[in-house]
Amino acid sequence: MRACVERSVTRRGALVVLAIAVVAGPLTAGLIGIPGDDSGAADGSAADGSAADRSAADGSAVSAGDCSFGGPRSAARVWHELALEAIRRDEPNPTVHSRNLYHLSAAMWDAWAAFDPASTAVYVDEQATSTNIARARDDAVSLAAFVVLGERYADAVGGPETLETLRSVLAGTCGLDYGDPIDSNSAAAVGVRVARGVLAATVDDGSLERSGYEDPSYRPSNPLLAVAEPGTVMVDPNRWQPLTLAPAQTVGGLPHPGGEQSYVGPQWGSVETFAVPAASTAGLPVDPGPPPLITDPAFVEGVVDVLRASAGLEAGSAVIDISPAVMGNSPLGTDWGTGHAVNPATGRAYDTNVVDRADYARAIAEYWADGPASETPPGHWNLLANGVSDSLAASGDLSIGGAGAAVDRLEWDVKLYLALNGALHDAAVVAWGTKRHYDYVRPISMIRYLGGRGELPSVDGLIETITADSARPGERHAHLSGFVGEVAVYAWRGAPADPRTETSGVGWIRAVEWVPYQQPTFVTPSFPGYVSGHSTFSRAGADVLTAFTGSPFFPGGIYRHPVPEGSLLHEEGPTRTFELQWATYQDAADEAGRSRIWGGIHVPVDDYPGRLMGAKCAELAWARAQDLFRS
Length: 631
Hints:
By secondary structure, this protein is an alpha+beta fold. The chain contains 13 helices and 16 strands. A hairpin with a 5-residue loop joins strand 7 (248-249) and strand 8. Helix 2 (94-113) packs antiparallel against helix 9, helix 3 (133-153) runs parallel beside helix 5 (187-202) and helix 12 (585-598) runs antiparallel to helix 13 (604-630). It is globular.
């Protein structure tokens, strides 16, 4: 008896085929490049419609197999970390990566739940038993993760390295390689069937995976903004404007070709969600209402807020206490917090943490940036979650929701990843749906456009018109004497020639030449501003961690992230080593939102609605996850 399931997916011009063959006794799984256009069904049936060998689906016992994970990391954690590695190699596309993390998490959960009749699967309801449930779950989770990650990252940037790493880990932990026979009545086969079902069920979820996640229907309202040239031309100053980046060197000294931006993920508001209800307005699952337009005073206020932040990036100009004693504990959607009276873990007040304000601002702009070569914002919150899990595991406190009996690490991880990445996936859908619907302008376009038209408000010491007097030798605008009558802003001067040894600092520049505190190879993301994806992702992640751990506080009542002297990437700094500190998950999320204003990526109106939307995503995801856990 033999059943074969094959699916072909064309992405970025490449044909990738994931073939799974269940034969009498063995099962072979592998990523291979062969022609084929049949689609496997989510229920495990063969491409030709015949029933696949599903000998475990009736709940009969399966053999546990050979996967073994020594040390404190669970099988889910091992494969999860491989996913984060693959994301770092790939292009910084937070929508695609949040989807992949969610589908990986759903596959690992469905594989785990196959051995628990009290749990409900997300996509594939396998039923199986084993004489060694723990070992069987390791096998099922591992093969499910291996197949999903192999399929999703085969043709990504860094795909060959990712595939080799996946194969190496599969061989090292399970003793398997491509083409090795696997008993069809084994836990590993359960994992493969689950993975195939998840992949088949989600390929047409609205992401346009078959066409490389590209949506040709979007056309920008404005022409390209050439960052290296002063000024900008806008047809509609309320709408997003793509950039043209000049060739430059990366921080590591490698050449970057520059080029034109294209919108990443304009279709994402139509992607199927984990828990957020379907949109009543096409492509807009959650509507925060419109942002202010250029005729609204709030539009200009947002521009001034960004310029004030840019002016604050001068080291040595001010100090600030960033201790949880005085910072954080803000009501949702605000920055009104006055800190926390005591650390609940110690019962003592938090120590002061006075730092240079510009060091702090630059550090959070870089720490939360999550751009190229990072895990992107969804992966960042997965990293934080892993650190939290490790701290709680060390104290033996792995009780889901902070109540009830402690669970083993595999159960904790698969449940945490499902709830967290379900919420982060939904955060991407609701945020990007809003981005497409309102198509809102970014600060670089706002400032250059208004500055070039002389429509920025006059603010002494921040926004001024260059005059003959102010441009005289020795005066503040002397170096701008050739531009009398233009608007100057007191802001960050732009990337230095050598960011490892040089600091640009702050000074008077032409408004039409303003750039955010970013690297010249990035400058600003390639999608509209409203709402902030960082704010939405971060609040979703923070609130799931709060609910899942049963406490709003990081373990020990504080999280510390060291920022070594000289470790900044955009310019030399900070001036001395210090720590970023947060008491609660929400404090960290709020800082992530604020960081985008310091970095010149967003105006405040992008931030606060994103936080509210992220909180809603977390609430719905946690409710659904609990239903799946205890059905």
